[in-house]
Specification:
Elements: H1 7-10, H2 16-24, E1 27-31, H3 35-47, E2 51-56, H4 73-77, H5 82-93, E3 98-103, H6 111-115, E4 120-123, H7 128-141, E5 145-151, E6 154-160, H8 168-171, H9 184-187, H10 191-211, E7 218-224, E8 229-235, H11 239-242, E9 262-265, E10 270-273, H12 283-290, E11 295-298, E12 302-306, E13 311-315, E14 320-323, H13 328-339
Parallel strand pairs: 1-2, 1-4, 2-3, 4-5
Antiparallel strand pairs: 5-6, 6-7, 7-8, 9-10, 10-14, 11-12, 12-13, 13-14
Helix pairs in contact: 2-10, 3-10
């Protein structure tokens, strides 16, 4: 045991040999594989979580490398999907952990299937839209999840156990309007802040997997790496008094609302075009057809076309991200003209 992979972790009395076995038996869903998700996935794999499902819709970009562990410059050059690149790196870290990468946008149409066979979800989203959808799905199933958010030099983390702790909508009943809250694309983010926030998330995740006990009272940890502050905020949970639309009244508005077919990606000068229900595109045929328009990168999960004006990425699930414009009509026109879809 003293020389084993998890020997130092098992020596930690609250975990021990029995707790390590519970971690090894755990199935964890990682939603989003960016600044929080890569660090959380790395720590969970190193801790011996038996199964990790990593879901992310994006590809690795140069600006990610400042804070997103697991990725390299080669991943940027090859436009590799984050979920796939992370899974391959984790296989080198710990072959005992089964990692399932899924390159997809998380939507009301697929989130129930993604959460159906896991014990815990760890939040790596970079949007309020994603977190409110996740909160609905987890509360509906009674599935614990670890909330995390980080911007600039600050981050926060909280374990949500439906029926035992406040849910996200208990704390934030209404989703902020677009542009109302600061984002990493607008005000930046420190790598040290994302790493600390993810470490707090994984600490909470491991504690739940080992003990299956929610903290009483519930706790939100808030940290600021620039000013050297870390606060523990205790959160009261009184379902009879707070009238939460989600966990008390069981109204799952984000699960019941279809996502719009197009969305402007805040702060990225880009538009995402969704196409749920369309047949899987023939990426190889499309790559061959569009080479005359510019530089093409083609892989198993996507085709990317760079022209002088735009960069278009077509994913295997039918999504298209058009960079170089924040106008939906312009993005649709570019996709139709250059990709023929």
């Amino acid at each position: 045991m003293l020389d084993g992979r998890y020997s130092r972790q098992a020596l930690f009395a609250p975990i021990g040999v029995d707790g390590q076995a519970r971690i090894a038996a755990a199935r964890v869903l990682m939603v989003g594989c960016g600044g929080l998700g890569t660090v959380s996935a790395s720590l969970l794999a190193r801790a011996g979580a038996g199964f990790l499902r990593i879901v992310d819709r994006d590809v690795v970009e140069l600006s990610n490398l400042q804070r997103q562990a697991l990725f390299s410059e080669a991943d940027v050059r090859l436009a590799r999907p984050k979920a796939v690149a992370a899974a391959e790196r984790l296989a080198d870290v710990n072959h005992e952990v089964a990692v399932e990468p899924i390159v997809a946008d998380i939507t009301p149409a697929n989130i129930r299937a993604l959460t159906a066979d896991v014990d815990l979800v760890v939040d790596g989203f970079d949007s309020f839209e994603g977190r409110y959808l996740l909160n609905d799905a987890c509360v509906e199933r009674g599935l614990p999840w670890v909330y995390g958010a980080c911007v600039a030099a600050s981050g926060m983390a909280m374990l949500v156990v439906p029926g035992q702790t406040p849910c996200l909508r208990c704390l934030y009943p209404q989703r902020p309007e677009p542009g109302a809250a600061p984002t990493c694309d607008a005000v930046g983010v420190l790598g040290s802040a994302t790493h600390l926030t993810a470490a707090l998330q994984v600490g909470m995740a491991l504690r739940w997997l080992v003990t299956r006990e929610a903290p009483r009272p519930a706790v939100m940890m808030v940290a600021d790496v620039w000013n050297g502050r870390c606060d523990r905020v205790e959160l009261a949970y009184d379902p009879a008094a707070n009238h939460c639309l989600c966990c008390v009244k069981r109204r799952f508005e984000f699960l019941d609302t279809a996502l719009p077919p197009a969305a402007v990606l805040c702060g990225r000068n880009a538009v995402m075009l969704r196409s749920e229900g369309r047949e899987r595109p023939d990426l190889q045929a499309i790559a061959a057809r569009i080479r005359r328009h510019g530089e093409v990168v083609h892989g198993e999960h996507l085709v990317r076309l760079r022209t002088g004006e735009h960069e278009l990425t077509l994913f295997a699930d039918g999504r298209i991200v058009v960079k170089g414009t924040g106008d939906i009509a312009t993005a649709r026109a570019a996709a139709a003209r250059l990709l023929g879809v």
